[in-house]
Amino acid sequence: MSFLPEIQQIEQRISILGSAMRSEVLAYSETSGAGGELRFPIYKLSFGSTDPQAPVLGFVGGVHGLERIGAQVSVALLNSFSELVLWDKNLQRTLQDIRVFFIPTVNPIGIYRKTRSNPRGIDLMRNAPVDADDPPRFLGGHRYTNKLPWYRGEFGAPMEVEAQAMIRGVQDEIRESKLAITVDSHSGFGLQDRLWFPYAKTLKPFPDLGLLYSFKQLLDRTYPHHFYRIEPQAGTYTTHGDLWDYIYDHHQSPEMGQHKNYLPLCLEMGSWMWLKKNPWQIFKPEGPFNPLIGHRHKRTLRRHNTLMEFLIRAVSSPDEWAELNAAKTLELESKAMELWYAKS
Ligand SMILES: [Zn+2]
């Protein structure tokens, strides 16, 4: 039977933690064909408050299988978090008021086979029914053939099993939450770690800009030497079918009731740093997307611990930064417009 070390680690956590968390198989990712049959569960682990309105923090990884480091970082965060849950009284108290969840391996067959897409050749981050303004040809998502990367799937077809599993897994956690932050880990772009916020589909400003700017100020004030570049995802290029655009818009749609504070972030790890230090790895399929040398890999796995700690604290203390009156929101929005959208 085929196995994935990332899934083995998740299953170990489930057996160690017992009733200290809730686990769910959101779906199975399956394929059969020339390479034999493959079937992997897509797990979600959830900790803390079951109050639907409680603030929520979520970590997602492995959407693009080839960017394996995204799944590995999510599992590493899960491992540390799970240990803390067992002994850290502060965290145990915090979890009475907030909920934290992990979906570390959204596209397990992609991870196993080192492919960006799912087993049907569909790029999950191009698969949502969302059309972009002026995306680059191919790269921004296309419907020509699954033989090329960035394939969106057929027009009008239901979303892929893995995409649906992730969307439902996230929505079940955040639906009625007063404040939610999710972090989806990717790699493959730039010399610096970025925190991208929506939209991917358009250069038009993200509706929760005031909240986002307040979040940035909090991070900058608390950790002035942090290394994250916070910017709108579409600043690089626009894409069709982004799952976070879809989740965000659905979450804020009128049928979902009143507006709720939600920041869907993507951690885009600056993989060119790894390439710069070890140019030869570009000749391996996973080379452009992952730290391949032992010490660099380890360093990457521990690199985002402070971010996780910061996010737990930010989500559990929303009155400091997320409960904004109209005047404050306007002031923050104008600063954000100046910083991120002045050119357009
Ligand atoms: Zn990616």
Automatic annotation (TrEMBL):
InterPro entries the record matches: CARBOXYPEPT_ZN_1, Peptidase_M14
All copies of domain Peptidase M14, residue ranges: 44-254
Signal peptide extent: none
Domain of life, source organism: Bacteria
Cofactor(s) required, per the database record: Zn(2+)
Keywords, comma-separated and alphabetical: Hydrolase, Metal-binding, Metalloprotease, Protease, Zinc
SUPFAM superfamilies: Zn-dependent exopeptidases
A Pfam cross-reference name: Peptidase_M14
Entries under PANTHER family matching the protein: PROTEASE FAMILY M14 CARBOXYPEPTIDASE A,B, SLL0236 PROTEIN
Family under the similarity heading: Belongs to the peptidase M14 family.
The protein, known as: DUF2817 domain-containing protein
Species assigned in the record: Bdellovibrio svalbardensis
